Amino acid sequence: MAKKTTYLIGKGGVLTVKDFEPRTFGEALEADLKKGWKKDPAKLVKAVETNPDILTAAIGLMSAAQDVIGGELDKLSSAIDAVYEKAINDGDRDFTDDEAALLDELEPNAEALDDDLEDLQFMTPAEWIGSASKKGYAAIVNVFEEFMSLPVTDGWECFSPALDTSEGAAAHRLRQIGAETSDALGLDFEIGTGIAPVEVKTTLSATEFTAKAKALKIAVETASAAKKAVKTEKKPAAKKTEVKNAAAKKAAAKKATKSAKAVKKTAAKPAAKKTTVKAAAKTAAKKTAAKPATKPAVKAPAKAAAKTAEKKAVKAAPKKAPAKKAAAPKAAAKPADKPAEKPAADAKKA
């Protein structure tokens, strides 16, 4: 049996549904995400290609991953630069065994991150998801699950005032009572940008409306009385709820952090993992997700990666590579006495 609706009458006679809960994205997008999508990338790819909200979430996830990978690439590039600069500042000396070993570890990681970054810049969201490794897809699923647990808000394609707002829900339900009853309750429906009402209010006083509604077996409370009832709840119960919510958030953060490392091909530090999921979840929850091509964080890593590649080439050459670089312009510094050729040219003219 469906739960009976209780309406609250607020300021200006606006009616809302008591204890209203909007849909989650999971509920709103259930029809577009086919069963088994968590194990089958092809099903999520199909949803990304056909549903604008799921596409927005995917772009948000890519954008967040781009930020994190770019930050990691910056750190690696700085560490590589430091090794080269130390050798140069010490009189262009050879690398020590420890320095050479460190470069052998850092440079391949930088190259791998650069490849990941390039994929994020040039792949479509569907291609990126479809080409993810098993671990990578598991991380993508983890972030999408967080997105699916968020409440639907205005601005998303799936948003509906009747299903996702307390005011819209009241208008939707009270439209079903019939014209005569509606007139008796003094109901006035406000139409939004579409054809369905987004709000309903009564032209009667709160006392009149409550009396008539009760006669029609419609449950009504004043919003002020409902707020007062909430305030008078026992404090210990409120504290318990807060603790429970905090614990749940902490547990969700830990779970998200664990799987975040699979978003990248190379392992990131714990702090970076946390940032990956946090940023991804935040970005995915907004309609205005940043576009990958416009992320400033990408430009710096790309430049750093180029520097790294150049230095790697230097390292492969004989030692004291920086000195050889400086010597190269000297060999080509003197042009081949072109003025001496002028008399010959004059002779030809004669």
Question: Mind explaining what this structure looks like?
Answer:
By secondary structure, the chain is mainly alpha-helical. It folds into 2 domains: 6-28 and 156-249, no CATH class; 41-145 and 258-331, no CATH class. Helices cover 62% and strands 6% of the residues. The chain contains 16 helices and 5 strands. The strands form 2 sheets. Strands 2-1-5 form a 3-stranded mixed sheet. It has a two-stranded antiparallel ribbon with strand order 3-4. β3 (187-191) and β4 (197-202) form a beta hairpin. The longest helix has 38 residues, at 52-89.
Strand content: 5-15%
Rounded mean pLDDT is 74
**Count of β-strands:** 5
Count of separate DSSP helical elements: 16
The H/E string reads EEHHHHHHHHHEEHEHHHHHH
Poorly predicted runs of 5 or more residues? 234-309, 311-350
What is the radius of gyration computed over CA atoms, rounded to a whole number of angstroms?
A: 32 Å
Could you give the order of strands across the largest sheet? 2-1-5
Distance between the termini: 113 Å
Q: How many strands, what sense, and barrel or not for the largest sheet? A: 3 strands, mixed
How much helical structure, as a percent, in the residues? 55-70%
- Count structural domains: 2
Structure class: mainly alpha
Question: Globular, elongated, flat, extended or rod-shaped: what is the shape?
Answer: elongated
Structural features:
350 residues, mainly alpha, 2 domains, 3-stranded mixed beta sheet, two-stranded antiparallel ribbon
